[in-house]
Amino acid sequence: MKDQEILHTRAAQLAIPLQQQSSDPTQVVLLIEVASETYALPAKQIETVRALGTLTRLPGVGSVISGMITLQGHVLSVLDLAALLGNTPDEQAGYIVVYQHAGQRVALKVREAREVVSIPLQLSRPPNLRPGLVGVWEARITLLDLDTLLEDFSHQSTFHQTGGASGIL
């Protein structure tokens, strides 16, 4: 009898019409976890997501630059996204998201890459939201503007200003 109840419940759920699609404009994003927080990155500028692998550490570059990695024959800077957001570096980060920024590829170190979803273009924007943070979706996911974050970092970086290794970003 229990099997019949389960089948009846499933049939009733399947008989409910699908909700109509919203006509509000959306954007496709990748949900990532950084230092136990969930963020969204615009998918249109993401090239690939993969396991972190072995980094070549660079001495004296600060906490944001985790090192360098070779990917498909190209050397990429690996930035710790937690540190870029002003937090302590995320030692549990196990993935990189390769992002196109100003004509260059940058690898961002994240704890986890979760899923690709569509979110509304118009998000709630709490007061005093810092540059690089676009808005909040579903009260818990912050959409990032990586171009702004990376521009701010490259302007503030003494590594970049001193010419220590030009082209790091």
Automatic annotation (TrEMBL):
Q: Which domain of life is it from?
A: Bacteria
Which CDD domains does the UniProt entry name for this protein? CheW_like
- SMART domains the UniProt entry points to: CheW
Under the heading InterPro entries, the entry gives: CheW, CheW-like_dom_sf, CheW-lke_dom
- CheW-like domain mapped to chain residues: 26-169
Name of this chain's protein: CheW-like domain-containing protein
